[in-house]
Amino acid sequence: MKKILMSIVALFATVTMSAQVYVGGSFGFASYDDSNKSHTAFKFIPEIGYNLDEDIAIGVALGYTQGSTAAAWLLTNPNEDLKTFSIAPYLRYSFAKFGPVTVFADGSFEYAHADNDGVKANAFGLGIQPGIAVSLNEKFSFVSHIGRLGYTQSKLDVSGAKAQSTFGLDLDNALTFGLYYNF
To answer: Which residues form the signal peptide (predicted)?
Structure first.
């Protein structure tokens, strides 16, 4: 057991010392008022990735969103009680570098599960998200994504429900900001 534990520690140290692993993610918050009451929503999306080489990385983003604007693409009438869990493994290709700025695109497979006061829904999707990363220093990077081009299929988890499919370009509320720590 001691040999296995020491091997895992050595492997982790080797990977992190080569500056190939990054962790980070994004956090979002929104609030709005309608004629009846105030609504809030937030999202927390931690992420971990591994740089395979200078231009290609793989990673996974895990997400939790809650609120009236959270994952509205899953349900037709979302409310402030909507809770969504998601996972999105991705392949990142960096195609242009300008000093500390890198332009990239993430190709991802997404799965999301939502619960709206007991009414559940599931969604699967394939998409491409362009983005930029700005290296602030050797350890920290600022990352932003804008938009999504892709396909999504969602379905309420009730008897007789039919799946809804969507293909298109989404630029509405699709700007995200995050911070990465590079090991």
So the answer is: 1-21
